[in-house]
Structures are given as C-alpha cells and as structure tokens.
Amino acid sequence: MTDVTRPGRPAAGSLLYNRTARAIVYQVVLIATVIAVGWWLVDNTLTNLRQQDIATGFGFLTNRQAGFAISESVIPYNETDTYLRAFIVGLLNTIKVALLGIVLATLLGTVIGIARLSPNWLLRKLSTAYIETIRNIPVLLQLIFWYTILTETLPRPQQALQAFDSVFLSNRGLFLPAPVDALGWWLALLGLLLSIPAVIWFRRVARAHQDRTGEAWPTGLISVGIVVGLGVLGWLAGGAPAAFTSPELQGFNFRGGARVSPEFLALLIGLTLYTAAFIAEIVRSGILAVSHGQTEAAMALGFGRGLTLRLIILPQALRVIVPPMTSQYLNLTKNSSLAIAIGYPDLVSTMNTSLNQTGQAIECIAIAMSVYLAVSLGISLFMNWYNARIALRER
Amino acid sequence: MKHSKLIAAALAAVGAMSGSTAFAGADLDAIKARGNLICGVNTGLAGFSIPDSQGEWTGLDVDVCRAVAAAIFGDANAVSFVPLSAQQRFTALQSGEVDILSRNTTWTLTRDVSLGIVFTGVTYYDGQGFMVPAELGVSSARELDGATVCVQSGTTTELNLADWFRGQGMTFEPVVIESFDESKTAFFNGRCDVYTTDASGLASIRAIDAPNPDDYVILPELISKEPLGPAVRQGDPQFFNIVKWVVFALIEAEEYGVTSQNVDEMKGSDNPNIQRLLGTAPGMGELLGLPDDWAARAIAAVGNYGEIFDRNVGPGTPLNLQRGLNALWKDGGIMYAPPIR
Fold first, then answer.
1. Residues of B in contact with A52 (CB under 8 A)
2. Contact yes or no for B51/B45 (Cβ under 8 A)
3. Average pLDDT of the segment spanning A290-302
C-alpha cells in the first residue's frame, strides 16, 4: 500500500487539521481581540480626558466630602461624609426597595395568578383585567402616577389624616409610632432570625416522623409558634422594653416615630403592582403546565381544592415558575433605578448628583453599572441555586 | 424620559472618548467653518433662556450668545440653541456638542479646574434664596428648621442648601428631583414647604410657573454667592478671549452710554474709549482675530448690558428684578469691565 499524499498540502496529522488545536487558536484570537479592543477604549478615553484637562480617577470617592444631603438612609449619613458613603447609602436604598418589592410582588402575583384560574367568573375576569391593564402601561408612567396621587391628593402635615391616635398620613409620608432603641428589640429581631433555621430543622424532623409512622404533626401551627415564641423570648430576655415614640407635629413636619416617605411608597407600590402582573402570568402558566391528571388523581384520593393546590400542584409548578421568575426579580431591581424620576434617593440618584458635583461622569456611571451588574448577578446566582435545589431529581 | 437624559450624557461622554480630536485652538476655526455658533442654554427659565410664542429663544443668557455670534459673524441669528438639563450641560460642552455654555451656571473652583472647561466672566451676580407659600406665614429663612425643601439635582444649590442648614444648626429634608419641571411641580403640589434655587430663578418661577404669584413669597436671605456666566472648553484661548471680551464690551457700552439705538452715531464720538470700543480707532478687533466693528455689531444686535438686563429680567418684565449687584460699578453695583485698549 502506498500513502496518498497530495502535493502542497500538509499531512493529515498536522496541527492545521487538528480540531482541538484549531478551536484553541480561535479562542486565543478572540480573547486577544477582546482585550485589545478593551485596552484601546480605555487608553483612548484616558488620553482624551487628559488632553481636555478633565480630572480622572476614583480618588474623589474617599478624599472628598459629598456635601449634599440625602433624605432617607438605612445607615447614618450626613453631608460631611465621603462620596463613597453617599454611594453606599444609595445602594442600600436600592436594595431596600428591591427586596421589599420582590417579596410583595411574589405574594401578590401568586394570588392573582391563581385567581386567574379560579372557577369564580368575577374573580377570574378581575384578575385578567388587572394583568392586561398593568403590564401594558410603561412602568415609568405608573410611578409618576402613584407619586402624583400621593403628593397631590394627600393633605399637608397640618391637616394630616389620622388613625389610631398616632398614625398620620400626609404628603410628607406615612408616620408611625416606633419602638425606642433598646436591647430587647434587637434580641427579638435576633430571635426571629434564629427561628428561620429552627423552623427548617423542625419541618425536617416532622417529615421524617411522618415518613416513619404516617402520623402528620400540625406543622403549620407549630412553625408559627416557634417564630412567635423565639421573638417573644428575645424581647423578654432584653428586659421587655415597652417604650414607643409617637410622631408629633412640630413646626413644618412630624418628628419622632418611623416614617415612610411618599417617594419610597410610590416606588414600592408602582414596582410591586407592575411586576406582580408579570409574575401572575408566570404562575398561571406554571400551574397550567402541571398535567390535569395530577389534579384528578389528588381529588380521587380525597384531597380538597386547597390541599391539592398546596401539596400537589404548586410544588410541581414551581419547577416551571422559578427560571422566568428570576428574570422578573432582575427586572424589578433594575426598574428601581426609575426612582430618579420621583426623587427617591436610590443608587442612580446619588450617582447622578455625584456625577454633577464632581464632573467625573465616566467613573460614576462605571460604578453604577458595575454595582447593578453585581446585584443582578447575585440575585441570579441565588435563584439558580434555588432552582437546582427544587429541580426534579430523577431516580 | 429621565433616563434618556442620562443615556444622552453617557453617550456624550463616550463621544468624548472616541475621537482623538485635541480641540487645541480649533474651536473658533470650527465655528467659522460651520457658519454658526452652537449655544447650550437652559431648557426653560423665563428671563434667561426660554422660547417665546414664535419659538424664538429669548433671555439674558440667550442674548449673550447672540452677541458673540454677532461679533464673529455680524449676524445675531447665526446661532443655534441646544436646551440642556443641569446634568447634561458640562458633558455637552466637554464633548463639543455645544461651543459655549450660557445656562445660568455658577462659576466655582471645581468646575473651572477639573471639568476641562473655563468660565469667561460673570453676566449675572446672583445668590441662592428660598421661596415658600405665603400661607405658611414664614418671614425669614431662619424659621425653616425642619422644613422639607425641593431642589433640583446636580446644582451648586444642592450643596449650599446642606451647608447653610448645617451652619445654622437646623435640620431639613431634601426632595431631590432631576427634572426642573418635576421639581417645580412637586413644590406647587405641596410636597415641599420650600423651593430653593438662585434668587433670579425664584423670581422667574414665581412669575411664570406659580398658579398665582401672590400665593408665594421669596424670603429676604441670600445664602450663597452665585456668579453666573458663560463657559467654553479649555484649549482655544482665542475663542475664550472673544467670549470674555464681548461680555466686557456690552458692559463697557453701558458705561459710555452706547446703546443699540445710537451705536451708529456714537461711531462719530470724540471719546477715545468709545472709538476703541466701536472700532473707529482700529486695532482691538485685529488682536481678537475679528473685524474692528466686532463690539459695534454685538451692541447693535442685542444692546448694551443694561438694555439686555431691562429687556429680559428688569422692572417692567414679569420677573421685575432690580439691578442690585448687577448695576454698573459707578451706580453702586459690581459690574465692572476692564478697559478695552
């Protein structure tokens, strides 16, 4: 036998014909191109900024006072703090509204999604109307709508609406009595936090017990008992503080107590209602994805409507629901940046002010973009982990 | 909508980085080649820059740009106006979107030094004030402890506000809104007890935007110095000098009694100062790289500084502002132009 070699072409064993080798070369070239383009952009930017005498760098974050006030903050802040702290205040405000919004939108969306499949005609049509209206109006308009409603229709603080003695609603916000800072309240909070692992552990034990003996404990009641019990225990351990401060009208505004600003309220309501409409559709499709045979089988075994939904349908629907739900959570978080239109001091708002006061547009926008990216990736990772946990394990 | 501005600012910033243009001395050439001046103005501040019922831009800041255009081209209409928000203004100037920023902008050290721009002078000496609804019965800013204050974001106003309240040992709650219109609406809806901006801006808002001007009072205290003036990019000293000296020429014209009406007869004046100003005695224009009648053209187009002031913001206009600090130095104000010689 003679080897057939074609003249002018390398042997079949050459690197050029090696699939792996070629793949590696392509990837190296791709990465090199990306790095080169990135480097060119950064270098070009820096050169041009220098040529135009525009200050660059991130030094302003830590060595200059922000100088501007922020109306609400989770951590202590005043004008003499640095720009970095102002950014963190904005970030925490973003996280605050996003977390609350995600929880509320999930609850509301689930209820509406289930209502959309209800045998009750009125309930079904009402939830359809809600979904079709809300999700087809741009969320920015909805935010401005709620903000206008809150600021324009509510009275000035001097004529505030009052409920239960010390709850006031005016166009300065909702004022509530708040507990005076004391050890007991912090221990109560700690108790509540500890109750989460405690309940998870108890449920596991109860499940094992049921698997072994067939006897079902009233897990719902006992779980509530654990949460309340641990909370109360912490409160008692801290000396059972009972002092509250109530808001009182002094001069222009209420002082004391806790306050929910109209900006926060409008943003929370707007984002929750908007996202809930999408979540409702996801929940509905998730439920419909579970074969009707499952319902029939559950009914045949004597489960009621509620139990069927809770024990048979929803756990299976969840597997379909979680991935699209993740993107809704991300949407809500990113939409919270629309806060700038209604004056809620979120990350974009503080970034925007800093950008103007320092003139360092590229740095500020880069920071805001990376922070949103990090937050979104965090949510994604958590939801992916959860998705993997509840995914059907084939045995 | 709010976001589109932010995006525009970001894009403008990206625009600034993409070309490797080094603007060195090239601004004036570019303006001359284009045949018109591009001027960044406020989105709508009566008396300073606002379109009238025919869509023509009017106001003090607008007239400054028209004067510069008249000096360069001999045509006060060879200028196009770009309305800018407080956020957009510096990026727009840096990136070359506008040639000159004449947008009630306060001259500060930070802006002069770190933004790559340079202020050419002062066209209006202002100070920050407070406006409150009359029904609150407040007569002094020192009574504002605990008040809620509406303020537009990205302004020196926002910083002065925090400084002043801290200095007085008083507290306040800021409501910071990006859009000028939204922030005014929030105030008139009663979201805030106080609106704060430059006193001239307050007069403008009270006269034009308030449902009923008499329902609002402007408190007497001014809490800051706000020298407002035009700014240009760094890197073209010739254009910088032209803008600077056109404004000085307008002030000088008022000092010597040269108006848009009598500018032609004044050319026959024996006063050497007037002769140099109007170009009858040649040489000044050449130094600036302009025809000798540069100042005469500017004055003929928009009038001297006093005429501009009276026409746009002075007594008899809705703003009804007194000259105050903006009177000429010989009339008790601080408007003072270095000699043109």
1. 16, 23, 94, 116, 233-235
2. no
3. 90
Provide the H-helix boundaries in chain B.
Answer: 2-18, 26-34, 60-73, 88-94, 109-114, 156-167, 180-188, 199-204, 237-255, 263-266, 272-278, 284-288, 294-302, 305-312
In the block, residue with structure tokens 């559950």 = A298
Q: Which residue of A has its CA nearest to B115?
A: A54
Give me the mean pLDDT over the A141-164 stretch: 86
Query: What confidence tier does A340 reach under pLDDT thresholds 50, 70, 90?
Result: confident
Beta bridge partners of A253: A250
Chain B residue closest to A153 (CA)? B189
CA distances (Å), origin A373, targets A47, A294, A378, A387: 27, 40, 8, 21
Residue with the two structure tokens 């009804």: B320
Residue A222: what pLDDT?
85
What is the DSSP code (8-state) at residue B21?
-
Cβ contact A365–B10 (<8 Å): yes
CA gap A202, B5 in Å, rounded: 53
Residue A44: which residues within 8 A CB-CB, separation 6 or more? B17, B18, B20
Token pair 């007991």 is at which residue? A184
**If you count residue pairs, one on A and one on B, with CB atoms under 8 Å apart, how many are there?**
156
What is the rounded distance in angstroms from the CA atom of residue B3 to the CA atom of residue B10? Answer: 10
Q: Could you report the per-residue pLDDT of B263-279, keeping only the tens digit for each?
A: 999 999 999 999 999 99
Q: What is the pLDDT of residues B48-65, one digit of tens each?
A: 999 999 989 999 999 999
**Least CB–CB distance from A359: residue in B114, B148, B176:** B114
Say how far residue A379 (Cα) sits from the centre of its chain: 7
| Contact criterion met (CB < 8 Å) for B94 and A54 | yes
Which chain A residues touch B136 with a CB distance below 8 Å? Answer: 252
Residue of B nearest to A173 (CA): B191
What is the per-residue pLDDT for B24? 39
Say whether B17 and A156 touch across the interface (CB within 8 A). no
User: Per the CB < 8 Å rule, is B235 touching A342?
Assistant: no
| Phi, psi (degrees; rounded to nearest 5) at B132 | -130, 155
Confidence check: pLDDT of B2 > 60 = no
CB contacts, 8 Å: B166 with chain A? 78-80
Nearest CA in chain A to B181: A341
User: How many other CB atoms sit within 10 Å of the CB of residue A215?
Assistant: 8
Query: Closest approach of chain B CAs to the CA of A26, in angstroms?
Result: 28
What pLDDT is attached to residue A256? 76
Which candidate from A48, A353, A361 shows the least CB-CB separation from B20?
A48
CA distance A20 to B211: 75
Instruction: For B208-223, write each residue's pLDDT tens digit.
Output: 888 888 999 999 889 9
Q: State which residue of chain B sits closest to A156, comparing Cα positions.
A: B190
Q: How far is CA A385 from CA A321, A378, B100, B327, in A?
A: 14, 11, 54, 70
- Using alpha carbons only, give the angle B69, B74, B75 rounded to the nearest 5 degrees: 65
Contact A79 B234 (CB under 8 A): no
Cβ <8 Å between A55 and B114:
yes
**Exposed, middle or buried by CB within 10 Å (0-12, 13-18, 19+), for A393?**
exposed
Q: Check: CB of residue B301 under 8 Å from CB of residue B66.
A: yes
DSSP label of B282: -
pTM: 0.80
Residues 6+ apart with CB under 8 A from A335: A139, A271, A274, A275
ipTM, 2 decimals?
Answer: 0.74
Q: For A61, phi and psi rounded to 5 degrees? A: -60, -40
